[in-house]
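Trying the structure run again after the queue cleared.
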Amino acid sequence: MMIRMLVFLWTLPTTLIGLAAGLLWILLGAKVRISHGVVEVHGGRMATYMLHLGGFAAMALGHVIIGCSPGVLDQLRTHEHVHVKQAERWGILFIPAYLLAGLWQLSRGRHAYYDHPFEREAFAAERAEGFACDQKGVE
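Done. Tokens:
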């Protein structure tokens, strides 16, 4: 219990940024729910901008995940929860580490998103979950 509280405090600065972003989304019509131990914010007018201007369907900031819709959040939950765990590991350094890792990939002529180590870890978790589901279907 004490360790979980310390992890929460370590992640709190990033979570506060997520809560501030989530509040903006809510003011623009989004809905909020608590799911799998995190705050999930979805929909509203910002959802359109996420896809068309930002080019992303969901993002995690600490213990807050913002997504276009409940369905998108359900579909990307495994991926986004990897980012929640990364934020727990990196704490206040998560956002700078994420941005610097993307810049590092760009400086090496690689893709800032698809070659990003944080994203690669999240994609690997998605693939592992898909494999586990496939295996269950075989039995």
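Strands lie at 31-35, 38-42, 58-61, 64-67. Worth checking whether this holds up in the mutant runs.
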